[in-house]
Write a structure and sequence with these properties.
Blueprint: E1 2-3, E2 10-21, E3 26-35, E4 40-50, E5 53-63, H1 67-81, E6 86-89, E7 94-97, E8 108-117, E9 120-125, E10 132-133, E11 136-144, E12 150-154, E13 156-157, E14 163-164, E15 168-172, E16 180-189, E17 194-204, E18 214-220, E19 226-231, E20 237-241, E21 248-253, E22 263-272, E23 279-285, E24 294-298, E25 303-311, E26 317-323, E27 329-334
């Protein structure tokens, strides 16, 4: 989160909560607003009552750190959704027709890419899957949808003495803050063959109001930083802490945006007014293959360095690096 931008418009109050901070003998009023881009803003009002009068200690409004990243991710995912090889569920639910799959003599795999936003029902259509050959049939499918959910489906017996697997559907939600995940459909055949359909899942949350985010447990630390939780409609809890307004974080790297396949990314974090020895965590979001999705910078003289190794992809891959809790973000692209 960053402190308030005067260009932001507040639409309505979503919730408000008053807490008492015994350390400073003060009150903290935390209010969540819906703002103009269907995201949220948070009002932090910290005050004491002295001689029956309000003595204001802090009066700040925080907005998204990542408005520019949201716009960039929206553009990237919209572009992916509009590719002829992709399935586009940004606006409506619909059918995802599995590409033509022959009855396997040898195991093989293929890839399907789709993008969605909000909550969508997607029907996986098997009309192009050859399910029987020479009296042998497809008998089972194991599905990892890419959102943490999974299913196993079994074929049913037909009057011609074969088996047939019916279409199946899944309801996708805005399940986390990552714009990319992967899944798979594994088809199992009576001749021992296995065909794998790799799922590349791109998610766009164009309207944060769908998450019903609310701010709770507003408090402040002994160093006078504002800390709070966000809770969504599924009661998932997110922890945040504000940063000092005089602290800055700038992320750069040995590659500006486009990265060669099978390479190592060297990161440089430049800061201002950050104490030596401070450990800042980061997360790699959306990389198809990487040695580790977690890492950290240790600040010394306002500089921290880190390397991300094992970056590779079998198809064009957009991913980003984000500083945990601070929201500083940089996007990258591996062309294949």
């Amino acid at each position: 989160m960053i402190q308030y931008d005067a260009n932001v418009s507040l639409i309505k109050i979503l919730n408000s909560e008053l807490n008492y901070d015994s350390f400073s003998n003060s009150f903290i009023l935390t209010t969540t607003f819906l703002r103009d881009n269907n995201s949220i803003a948070i009002h932090y009002f910290n005050y004491k009552i002295v001689n029956n009068k309000i003595n204001i200690l802090n009066n700040n409004v925080f907005t998204n750190f990542n408005d520019s990243f949201i716009s960039s991710a929206r553009e990237e995912i919209t572009t992916i959704a509009q590719l002829p090889s992709s399935f586009n569920f940004l606006y409506d639910s619909g059918d995802l027709t599995i590409p033509s799959l022959s009855f396997p003599i040898d195991n093989f795999d293929t890839t399907v890419t789709f993008a969605y936003s909000g909550t969508k029902n997607i029907n996986f259509d098997l009309q192009n899957v050859v399910q029987s050959s020479s009296g042998l049939s497809l008998y089972k499918a194991e599905v990892e949808y890419g959102d943490g959910d999974s299913d196993t489906f079994y074929s049913t017996y037909q009057s011609d003495d074969t088996l047939k697997l019916d279409n199946f559907s899944h309801r996708y939600y805005p399940f986390n803050n990552e714009t990319y995940s992967d899944g798979s459909i594994k088809f199992y055949y009576e001749n021992g063959g296995i065909v794998t359909v790799n799922l590349e899942v791109y998610k766009l949350i164009d309207d944060f109001s769908q998450l019903n985010l609310k701010t709770i447990n507003g408090q402040k630390t002994n160093t006078d930083n504002f800390t709070f939780n966000l809770v969504d409609k599924n009661n998932t809890l997110y922890n945040y802490i504000s940063i000092d307004s005089n602290q800055t974080y700038t992320l750069s790297s040995n590659y500006e945006y486009e990265i060669p396949n099978n390479s190592t990314l060297s990161l440089l974090l430049s800061t201002q007014n950050v104490d030596d020895g401070t450990v800042l965590l980061f997360t790699v979001n959306g990389a198809e293959k990487v040695d580790s999705t977690r890492g950290n910078f240790i600040i010394n003289n306002n500089v921290g360095v880190a390397n991300i190794s094992g970056l590779s992809a079998s198809t064009n891959n957009n991913f980003n690096i984000t500083l945990d809790y601070l929201g500083v973000c940089k996007s990258f692209y591996i062309p294949v």
